Amino acid sequence: MAQQRVTLGLQFTAPVPVKLDETELDALLEALPKGEWYDVKVDDGTLRVNLSQVIYVKTDRDEPRIGFS
Prior knowledge:
Blueprint: E1 3-10, E2 16-21, H1 22-31, E3 37-42, E4 45-50, E5 54-59
Antiparallel strand pairs: 1-2, 1-5, 3-4
């Protein structure tokens, strides 16, 4: 499954870049409105995020591609 580059913008800290597969990204976006703690499964483990502190989620899902990226 294709990995998506995702940046989580959190209050009071630097943005956190991660790579997520489509299903994990969809699950994260669905859980955001709940504002609870959420375990994000990343390549090298699990990132526990307090979703009430997320101020933005940037993805490359819909960005146009040029070349062989």
